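Notes to self after the Tuesday call (sharing in case useful).
The group wants a holo model before anyone commits to mutagenesis around the pocket. I volunteered. Ligand is 3-methyl-2-oxobutanoic acid. Logging inputs and output together so the record is complete.
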Amino acid sequence: MQRKVKVPDLQRMKEAGTKITALTAYDFPFGRIVDDAGVDVILVGDTLGMVVQGLDTTLPVTLDEIIYHCRMVARARKRSLLVGDMPFGTYQVSVEDAVRNASRLMKDGACEAVKLEGGVRMADTIAAISSVDIPVMGHVGLTPQSVHRMGGHKVQGRKRGNAPGGRNRVIEDARAVEDAGAFAVVLEGIPPDLAADITEELSIPTIGIGAGRECDGQILVLHDVLGLFDDFTPKFAKRYAELGQAAREAVATYVGEVRAESFPDEAHSYMLRAEGGSAREGTGAKRRRAAAG
Ligand code: KIV
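Result:
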């Protein structure tokens, strides 16, 4: 196993020009696969609401649900840095609430850092959480928890100027996240040249999703990467496998074999053993052979 990834490693990677790899994961088997593959950061994201729970938005996801999934991933991962997402409503009400809920992700969810969405408006919250030694990853640009304000999952920073959603707003948000003490920031759904400018200006690492290749690292939703989620695939979500289709074919083959009585066969059955230890056929197998003539 390569050395365990720790929060300060991401800063060193930015400085060395080594790209940071990040993916989401939500349970033990996929946490193990992602960790084994050498991904630096695993995010237990509130996207679990959409790709695991089948919701239309991330808004209904609760802190207890994120903690439940973090614990599963924490048991699986050996090397990756584990970041827990703060769900909608768990950090916006008050700074005290935010610190309490971030602490729960660390204590109960076994996370090593938390992530929350928002820039200028969340600066005090990021500062308060960071001040109690909980590392915070920021998230600016397209922030899915603001889906209703934005009128959908809309690309941000396309227009020049200070208007809401404009380029300057994204830059100000990214600066605010760094100034508040975050150790890294996710840049989501912004044009590549804007992400490149922010990455150049900030001293903390930027991790892009739909933000071009100039960021210090990249993150994607695992279920998009593996082709497990078909409801909606954003333009930036490259599918590296078609596991959904493979799973459908496997299940259909199983159904066919059960109906045709070709499963379970002897290789998948506990046969009676003779005194000497040799296997004896069960009555079902004898019956099938007799029927086959
Ligand atoms: O919740 C999530 O999975 C995220 C990533 C897409 C960055 O915020």
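Two things stood out.
The chain has twelve helices and ten strands.
The pocket of 3-methyl-2-oxobutanoic acid is lined by residues 24, 43, 45-47, 85, 139, 186, 209, 219, 221 (CB under 6 Å).
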